[in-house]
Amino acid sequence: MCFGSFKKDNERVNEYFSKFRSKCFVQQLNIFKLSFLPLHNINNLRLQLTIPLFLSLFCNAGHGQTAAKSKLITVATFGHHRPIGVTVSPVSNRVFVSFPHSQPFQYALVEIKNGQAEPYPDTRWNKFVTFADKSHFSNVQDLTTDDQNNLWVLDAAPGRGPGGIGYFKLLRINLERDAVERIYYFDDLDKYKIALNDVNIDHVRGLAYLSDPGSHAIVVLNLATGKSRILLKDHPAMLATPGLRLHLDGKDVVDLHDNAFVSNVNGIALTTDKQYLYFRAINQLKLYRIKTDCLADSTLSYSQLSSCIEDMGETGICHGMIADKLGNIYLSASPDHAIKFLSPDGKLHTLIVDSRIIWPDSFGIGSDGFLYFSCSQINRSPAFNAGIDQTDYPYRVYKVALPEQ
Question: How far is CA 320 from the centre of its chain?
């Protein structure tokens, strides 16, 4: 639509667009109130008729209405407790959420029941003792579930000990018995350097794959022996692009000293057939994948393993990802307040756009046909806003319907 020559009203129009873009509260206003514009000429009449229609369309487009008419649904709210990890059991559709050890701290791991958070597997595990404690959670970073009805909990506290040492453990919890069955401690890795972030489980090969932004590498853990290998350390695909800053909500994500948020390899996604592991750095525009047969082959040299990496093209800034049974790779897209997905034909699609999607972080796929995810809002924290807390409370976990499966 064209607003013609009524330039004198442009300032008011721009003011409305700015407000509706950021808050999208057109639903709460009676749009006919825009009729305050005087009818001294035909151009103001056009304004009265076109602004309500345009803003209504604009608001719907920016608040979860896509071509697929996707709709954002709140699963649970957590007040001032920031959720990070999210996973959903493919067997029972039970939903689990993890929280880092920051104030205010309540629980490290919860199960969502009827919209309420309950400590899991019990209150004892959720009682913080020290970061070094081996029988309690300290800083739960990531979660994943498998088709054998296990919950895997990555408890990672990099740099939290004396001299900068980190503390790490991976727990396997049997969801039938709600009991911890095994714990891996990564004692063969340099805990002054690693910063384990995300984890996926491959029962076909008996391996766990973990992203390690600290070592700029992928860590492969043998689930039988407990031995680890660090692979592709410092490969360009593992590294943040020099000088690439996150630009969210109209500004760079930097601290008071202009230090930018930077993360090397971070999000990973294992395809459901266990054939490929997708990965990328946050400060990187490209998505990569590698055959898991290559990761499992301990005889390959660095160059041979590097040749297995496939460049999947630019997909934008992304924090977390997950694969569905159709081979779609779902990607967080913070700059666009969106969730996107790369289909097997290599095309990038938008699942949903909604202003409430702020730093979407971790994903889970339920047997109910929904994609679950957390919004950690890290860019809204005081550290990146001159000491001012810009968080949109309460913190939430959402879900959105998947494309037809």
Answer: 4
